[in-house]
């Protein structure tokens, strides 16, 4: 089972999750892929993820987290002992999102939502200072990320498997080049899908 956690202001309609969902469908494994709409509250988002994950053996679960979703994926992977792929993950989410308090809109729907000041403390409560089993993690970090510092990602996940993309951007707009590698870490042979 692959559980994709989208980033701040993102949604299940993002390019990366849509591409992965299409690959899984083409492989006849669409029912093994899920990307829920995460609530704005970090606590509620993680509770939702843990509720979904409770139905799956952690040994058969891989989280894929993008940006803020990578921050959540790290917390949940540590809690459950499952694998996680981190795509330009937020490492210091409370610091990075402190300036985002207020009413925002989702990128794909323009639907408004409120990111409350209390959510910063919720983010702090989810911080993982050091991962315990680096072999369960795969970091994909783009040096051209315009929102988050890839050097912080590389340092935080120093002992994990890493693929550093020279250039690209925060959304990894060239993600189609790397989808097979991500799915392979999840235990899915995507060789038949191009």
Layout: helices, strands, pairs:
Blueprint: E1 2-5, H1 15-26, E2 33-34, H2 42-53, E3 62-66, H3 68-80, E4 83-87, H4 93-97, E5 102-105, E6 112-115, H5 118-125, E7 137-142, H6 150-156, E8 161-165, H7 179-185
Parallel strand pairs: 1-2, 1-3, 3-4, 4-7, 7-8
Antiparallel strand pairs: 5-6
InterPro entries: AB_hydrolase_fold, UPF0227/Esterase_YqiA
GO molecular function, one term: hydrolase activity
Protein name: YqiA/YcfP family alpha/beta fold hydrolase
Which key phrases capture this entry?
33% helix; 7 helices; globular; two-stranded antiparallel sheet; 6-stranded parallel beta sheet; alpha/beta; AB_hydrolase_fold
Could you describe the 3D structure shown?
The chain is of the alpha/beta class and 194 residues long. Helix content is 33%, strand content 18%. The protein is built from 7 helices and 8 strands. The strands form 2 sheets. The protein has a 6-stranded parallel beta sheet with strand order 2-1-3-4-7-8, sandwiched between helices. The model has no long low-confidence stretch (mean pLDDT 95).
State mean pLDDT (0 to 100 scale). Answer: 95
Low-confidence stretches: none
Which class best fits the helix and strand makeup? alpha/beta
Q: How many β strands by DSSP?
A: 8
The percentage helix is: 25-40%
**Biggest β-sheet: strands ordered side by side in the sheet:** 2-1-3-4-7-8
Strand content: 15-25%
> SSE order, as H and E?
EHEHEHEHEEHEHEH
Keywords: Hydrolase
Organism: Herminiimonas aquatilis
Protein name: YqiA/YcfP family alpha/beta fold hydrolase
Pfam family, one: UPF0227
């Amino acid at each position: 089972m692959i559980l994709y956690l989208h980033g701040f202001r993102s949604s299940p309609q993002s390019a990366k999750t849509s591409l992965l969902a299409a690959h899984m469908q083409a492989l006849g494994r669409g029912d093994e892929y899920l990307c829920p709409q995460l609530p704005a509250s970090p606590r509620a988002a993680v509770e939702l993820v843990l509720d979904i994950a409770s139905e799956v053996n952690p040994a058969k679960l891989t989280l894929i987290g993008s940006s803020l979703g990578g921050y959540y994926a790290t917390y949940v992977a540590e809690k459950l002992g499952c694998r996680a792929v981190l795509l330009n993950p937020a490492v210091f989410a409370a610091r990075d999102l402190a300036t985002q308090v207020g009413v925002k809109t989702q990128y794909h729907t323009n639907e408004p939502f409120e990111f409350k000041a209390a959510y910063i403390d919720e983010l702090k409560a989810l911080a993982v200072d050091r991962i315990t089993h680096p072999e369960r993690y795969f970091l994909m970090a783009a040096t051209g990320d315009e929102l988050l510092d890839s050097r912080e990602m590389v340092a935080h996940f120093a002992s994990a498997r890493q693929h550093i993309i020279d250039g690209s951007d925060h959304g990894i707009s060239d993600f189609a080049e790397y989808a097979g590698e991500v799915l392979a870490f999840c235990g899915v042979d995507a060789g038949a899908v191009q």
